[in-house]
Amino acid sequence: MPDVASGSTFLRGLPAGSLGCMTRPAPEVYDRLRALVAIPEFRADPSSRESAVLNEVFTGEPLAEIPVGTAADVETAVERARAAQVAWAERSAKDRAAVLSRFATQVMRGREELMDIVQAETGKNRASAQEEVLDCLITGRHYAGTAPGLLAPKRVQGMLPGLTKAVVRRHPKGVVGVIAPWNYPLNLAATDALAALAAGNAVVIKPASITPFCALAAAEMLYRAGLPRDLFQVVPGPGGAVGGAIVDNVDYLMFTGSTETGRTLGRRCGERLIGFSAELGGKNAMIVTDGADLDEVAEVATRAFFSNSGQLCISMERVYVEKSVASQLIETLTARIGAMSLGPSYDFDAEMGSLISQDQLDTVTAHVDDAVAKGARVLAGGRPRPDLGPLFYEPTLLADVPEDATCFGEETFGPVVSIYPVDSVDEAVEKANDTEYGLNSSVFAGSDAEGEAIAARLRTGTVNVGEGYVAGWGSIAGPMGGMGASGVGRRHGEEGLLKYTEAQTVATQRVMHFGGPSFLSRDRWQSVLAPATDAMRFLPGR
Ligand code: NAP
Questions:
Q1: How many angstroms separate the alpha carbon of residue 311 from the centre of ligand 1?
Q2: Does 481 contact ligand 1 (Cβ within 6 A)?
Q3: Ligand 1 midpoint to CA 258 (Å)
Q4: CB-based burial of residue 16 (10 Å sphere; 0-12 exposed, 13-18 middle, 19+ buried)?
Q5: Over the stretch 16-48, which tens digit does the pLDDT of each residue have?
Q6: What pLDDT score does 43 carry?
Q7: Catalytic residue among 131, 132, 279, 351
Q8: Active site residue 313
Q9: Residue 153 has pLDDT above 60, yes or no
Q10: Active site includes 467?
Q11: Cβ-proximal residues to 46 (8 Å cutoff; 6+ apart), any chain
Q12: How high is the pLDDT of residue 542?
């Protein structure tokens, strides 16, 4: 592919003009978006309702107009959801799971259109959009298969073996609120909701203000899969008004977004004494030991660092490499990153797309400029690329980043990675753990056993050995989430479903009550009870 990057010596921009309509969404996408934003629940008073025009990210040209919701819309949505949830909870778990299966089928069939919508509203490359679609698919399939078993009543050991029968039942919370971010607007709108719905809840969701269309598209697919409309309602609108009303009205909150907002919402949920789960920011580290296959590291790195242009909570922003192989890795990485294709494309040609907003471009530019001003060296990238689109920035690798640079410890949430040579694995582990965050990490070592031993020493909710993030995220049967300032609670796996339930232990006492049989006097019963109590220390632990 020819190098059209104006002034760039190494980064390949996609060839202008050669992609035809692939640089823009297909014309049908605009019609689809117009249909999606006709939210029936919003029809009551269209004349007085505010609306916002959102732009297609690659070009900055208008994409569609979206009605803006209010706190009153949330209250109405929650009321309707609450009424519908009763009948939904009475349906069998298998019946509810069947809706998730059909949703997965809908997603499979509609994947091209979904990827178009994801790309149009985020500006990410198609491979990153495909990850969102795949995540919806595997989560739908996973909980369709596992939810009935996880929700079935479970017999546990009773107080007195044989005399006390104890069963744990799972009841839905009621109405679950989902507040979603803009970076993965399709899967982070749909997948947490799928688990909540499978558990018998209704869901009211507030997508990020700049990415409402994916949540609306997911809703349509759920309705087509047979979900009654009131059980999954999307209320687009601002965080303060709509997000605040969600927190004030629902029975459980699932939040994905920044640590700062997570802290605020956690306090509000605490005041209301409702359950709260939060997936927040990260400053994820990759460790590379001297035995690692450096070509493999460089290949994985383009995804581990730059998927969705680095606007991925679990992407890597720090690399700690043993000194003996540092210069070789730096050379390999620099060459690989320099050969990445960057550009607007609605097909799989571009390895990296655009940033999503001017705010993101400003933050990324500021972090790189600040680091360079304080002595960092740019090994690859390091510049905005207005020649490719208004919000493009090059995939960037920095070295010699000093401790007082902003991007040394703060999350950039963009395509900026810093590499630090270290004397030993111990130093790498210590530095990787030296952060308030604890979301994800990655290890490349000489063997799986060495990588897994290092993983055990890292304080992050997921660790990917021989990978960047896909293996940990996609192993959906296991919990996923953050330690420290990266989150509270987990999504995926058993915990990701059961958190949307209230556990209830039903204990049935049979044959004899704790007060003793009626034919024994109280004194007599005590004389029986004393040795029995003493004997309890011989019972096996339970
Ligand atoms: P954000 O500003 O916290 O926004 C996230 C969501 O919260 C948006 O829908 C936003 O609405 C809403 N919101 C903002 N203020 C609110 C308030 N006071 N009350 C209720 N809702 C409010 O985060 P972001 O900038 O969109 O997302 C980037 C951050 O999310 C990064 O730090 C990233 O690491 C993190 N993230 C974490 C994960 C994970 O799984 N751990 C996944 C993705 C992203 P508006 O859009 O209207 O502001």
A1: 12
A2: no
A3: 5
A4: middle
A5: 433 344 677 888 888 888 888 877 777 656 677
A6: 64
A7: 279
A8: yes
A9: yes
A10: no
A11: 67
A12: 56
Tokens of 15: 């060839």
Strands in 164-172's sheet, in edge-to-edge order, are 154-156, 164-172, 501-509
Asked whether the beta carbons of 190 and 218 are under 8 A apart, the reply is yes
pTM of the model: 0.93
- Cα of 209 vs centre of ligand 1, distance in Å, is 10
Phi-psi region of 174 (alpha: psi -120 to 50; beta: other; left: phi over 0): left
Catalytic residue among 269, 313, 394, 411: 313
- Residue 437: pLDDT over 50: yes
Mean pLDDT of 390-402: 98
Assigned token pair, 275: 């359950």
Residue 244 CB–ligand 1 contact under 6 Å: yes
Q: For a substitution probing ligand 1, which of 128, 214, 256 has the most ligand atoms within 8 Å of its CB? A: 256
* Tens digit of each residue's pLDDT (9 = 90 or more) over 187-231: 999 999 999 999 999 999 999 999 999 999 999 999 999 999 999
**Complete DSSP assignment for 263-292:** HHHHHHHHHHT-EEEEE----EEEEE-TTS
For 76-85, write each residue's pLDDT tens digit. 999 999 999 9
What pLDDT score was predicted for residue 517? 80
Once rounded to an integer, what is the mean pLDDT over residues 350-365?
98
Give bridge partners of residue 175 from the DSSP assignment: 202
357 lines ligand 1 (CB under 6 A): no
Residue 278 structure tokens: 């939060």
Mean pLDDT of all residues in the chain? 93
Whole-number Å distance between alpha carbons of 452 and 464: 9
Q: What is the chain's length? A: 542
